[in-house]
Every structure is written in structure tokens, then in C-alpha cells.
């Protein structure tokens, strides 16, 4: 049977909305609070960065002169992002690129997407790789790196064959 949670806040007896359990070694500390209490606000990220975020290392401050910069489209500042963990618009990615570049490696393994992709995207990726491979081939030939140029030639040939095949959409 699940453990019974208290109904009222430990500080002011309002209905509980925040439940926190801390386990250190063999000692367990449990807190039940309403969202209005100062301790709950600190746990959720109201005054400091939030205990959960600190534990996960997601919002450790990034030392950068860009802290005062704001997004020109939506006006979101870096300090506001640190509080909410939400960017305001697509322009924020460019405006806060320097800070995000320092933050992202701490919270996820890489900057590239490795999951599922929509159907048809593989052709788009192949076209982009074909363009890049052609540029690399020209550089390899001009630097007389013929072994690498031969590998690129073979890769270009296989990409062209892949793209020449009709898709299910056509």
C-alpha cells in the first residue's frame, strides 16, 4: 500500500502541492508544503535556481559576458532563461548561442540528433552529404590527397545512386 501523504502544509496548513524527500545515507527527510511557502519556492526554483536543477546540474551558471544580452525578437535575457529553462522564440537560439554552447554539453551527451527522423529526411541528409563530399573532393584533389579523393569519389557515386532511385512519394 502506498505511503499516505499529509494533507496540510507543514508551515501554514494550506493544501500540499510540493512533496520533497531527501535521503542521505540511511536518514530520510520528508517535506510537504503548499506552493506559497518560501521553502517550496526555493525547491521549485523561485529564489535560487531550484534544488532539482542544481542536483541535475542543468542550470549551473555559465560564466560569460553575454549574460546581459537579450534576444532582439522576444527580449528574453539569459538570467530569465536560467530561471525558467525555456527559450522565448527561435531567435533565442542564435542570441544565446555562446551560453547554450557551454551549457548543453553538461546536460546532454551531444549536439547531434540520433533518434528517429521523418520519412523522406534521409534523402535530404543524403543531398546535403553529397554537396559536402563534392566540396571535400575538390579540396582533396587540390592538396593532392588522392587516397582520400578516391574514397570521396566512391561515396559520391553511392550517394548519387541512392538519390537516383525513385521514392515512394513520386
Radius of gyration: 26 Å
- What's the β-strand tally? 2
What's the helical proportion of residues?
Answer: 40-55%
Shape: elongated
Neighbour order of strands in the largest sheet: 1-2
Describe this entry's structure for a reader.
- With 170 residues, the chain is mainly alpha-helical.
- The chain folds into 3 domains: 1-44, no CATH class; 65-107, no CATH class; 121-164.
- The protein is built from 7 helices and 2 strands; from the N terminus they run ββααααααα.
- It has helices spanning 38-44, 51-56, 78-84, 91-95, 97-107, 121-142, 146-164; strands spanning 18-24, 27-33.
- The protein has a two-stranded antiparallel sheet with strand order 1-2.
- Strand 1 and strand 2 (27-33) form a beta hairpin.
- It is elongated, with a radius of gyration of 26 Å.
- The protein starts with 17 loop residues before the first strand and ends in a 6-residue tail after the last helix.
- The model is unreliable at 45-50 and 52-66 (pLDDT under 50).
Amino acid at each position: 500500500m502506498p505511503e499516505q501523504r499529509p494533507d496540510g502544509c507543514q508551515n501554514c496548513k494550506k493544501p500540499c502541492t510540493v512533496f520533497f524527500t531527501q535521503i542521505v545515507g540511511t536518514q530520510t527527510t520528508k517535506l510537504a508544503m503548499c506552493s506559497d511557502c518560501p521553502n517550496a519556492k526555493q525547491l521549485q526554483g523561485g529564489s535560487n535556481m531550484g534544488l532539482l536543477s542544481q542536483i541535475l546540474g542543468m542550470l549551473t551558471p555559465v560564466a560569460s559576458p553575454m549574460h546581459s544580452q537579450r534576444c532582439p525578437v522576444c527580449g528574453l535575457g539569459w538570467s530569465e532563461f536560467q530561471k525558467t529553462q525555456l527559450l522565448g522564440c527561435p531567435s533565442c537560439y542564435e542570441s544565446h548561442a555562446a551560453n547554450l554552447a557551454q551549457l548543453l554539453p553538461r546536460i546532454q551527451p551531444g549536439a547531434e540528433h540520433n533518434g528517429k527522423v521523418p520519412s523522406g529526411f534521409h534523402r535530404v541528409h543524403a543531398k546535403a552529404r553529397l554537396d559536402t563530399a563534392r566540396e571535400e573532393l575538390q579540396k582533396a584533389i587540390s592538396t593532392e590527397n588522392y587516397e582520400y579523393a578516391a574514397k570521396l569519389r566512391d561515396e559520391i557515386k553511392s550517394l548519387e545512386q541512392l538519390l537516383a532511385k525513385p521514392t515512394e512519394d513520386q
